[in-house]
Amino acid sequence: MKFAERMNRLGTESAFEVFAKAKNLEAQGKNIIHLEIGQPDFKTPINICEAAFEAMKNGYTGYNPAVGIWEFRQAIAEHISETRRIEINPDEVIVTPGAKPIIFFALLALIDSGDEVIYPDPGFPIYESVINFVGAKAVPLPLREEVDFRFRIEDLVAAISDRTRLLIINSPQNPTGGFLTKEDLEAIANLARDRDFYILSDEIYSRLLYEGEHQSIISFPGMKERTILLDGHSKTYAMTGWRLGYGIFPKPLVEEMERLIINSNSCTCSFTQIAGIEALKGSQDSVIQMVAEFKRRRDAIVDGLNTIKGIHCRKPAGAFYVFPNVKQLPLSCGELADYLLEEAGVAVLSGTAFGKYGDGYLRLSYANSLENIQEALERIRIAVSKL
Ligand SMILES: Cc1ncc(COP(=O)(O)O)c(C=O)c1O
């Protein structure tokens, strides 16, 4: 079969591929500890599930407005206004099935072939994939271990050209767990205003921060007009399979987004949006407990990795990933990830799955029980000692 030429430019997310490979090994009877997949291992809080059942019983089962149910958009606007300390109106909020479509639709609406888009490397692989898909030039912004996986301002300045249309940032970050400081964001805001480009600020991990306070570029003067803020319920409320995300958009883009949605998924599921209101307005105890548990696991996995010869791991401030440096080991990071899966039954991702600057690193997700993390660390220690 002959495919459209554009399909050659569409990438993928290798977490799903490694997950499938690990599942295959499990089907053959092998015991696997999953540290590859990026989703909380907690159940969706029961008050959110109950709100969904109630909504279904009350008839929230049909189509609804393409950009989202007004009451949910209102709840999101209130939440973002409060957490980002800036006035957001409900008609600037767009609801999507998961946060991923915000990336896809924003680039489709904004970027022409020949435009340049700067994205973090290592970074969420979907950015580079979609930039290439829309025919733009993907310009990587290296994140550096020596500055806790932030970028160096001179690297950003060097990446900007007259064709730069968009900069994608992600804080707290996948895959490194790093986060951008107020000073970083200030520098970006100054450059965006001076050089006239937009920002896609991926804040899907905004609530999963263990030190400091989450800062958003949208709060900086003059930045609301040039920022698309992405957030959602997948990670914060353990709702990855519900598909519930949203974006805050500059007003002129809202109508364009609406047309893209009408032409593709029509709308986001009705009863999940009603449950999404309960998530934002109901008790936040489960989020607080989940974050405390993630922090405990982060400390355990970082400490454990740092006792293994040839592995060095910084302590990340957020998300639920660590990105240890494995450059001293005799295998490439891709070979090491394969070796750990086959030899030790521990599924991890190669740093190169997140871009060329991820070479020499692994990504481990600590969205798994402390007991499994300890067992995985022991298995890695034994496997590495045999190299
Ligand atoms: C950085 C980043 N952005 C966006 C997403 C997409 O989230 P969702 O599952 O809500 O589509 C993910 C999910 O892994 C992510 O890691």
Describe it.
The protein has two domains: 5-44 and 285-385, Alpha-Beta Complex (Aspartate Aminotransferase, domain 1); 47-281, Aspartate Aminotransferase, domain 2. It has helices spanning 14-27, 46-57, 70-84, 100-110, 125-133, 153-159, 182-195, 251-262, 270-281, 285-305, 333-344, 370-385, and strands at residues 33-34, 93-96, 116-121, 137-144, 150-151, 164-170, 198-202, 227-232, 245-248, 321-322, 346-347, 349-350, 362-365. An eight-stranded mixed beta sheet has the order 2-9-8-7-6-3-4-5, with helices on both faces. Strands 10-13-12 form a three-stranded antiparallel beta sheet. Strands 1-11 form a two-stranded parallel sheet. The N and C termini lie far apart (44 Å). α4 (100-110) crosses α8 (251-262) and α10 runs parallel beside α12. With 387 residues, it is α/β, with parallel strands linked by helices. The model has no long low-confidence stretch (mean pLDDT 96). The longest helix has 21 residues, at 285-305. Pyridoxal-5'-phosphate binds at residues 38, 98-100, 124, 170, 174, 202, 204, 232, 234, 240, 245.
Q: In a nutshell, what does this entry contain?
A:
By secondary structure, the chain is an alpha/beta fold. It contains twelve helices and 13 strands.
Share of β-strand residues: 5-15%
Under CATH, the homologous superfamily of the largest domain reads Type I PLP-dependent aspartate aminotransferase-like (Major domain)
CATH C-level class of the largest domain is: Alpha Beta
Please state the oligomeric state of the protein chains shown. Answer: single chain
Structural shape: globular
Compute the average pLDDT: 96
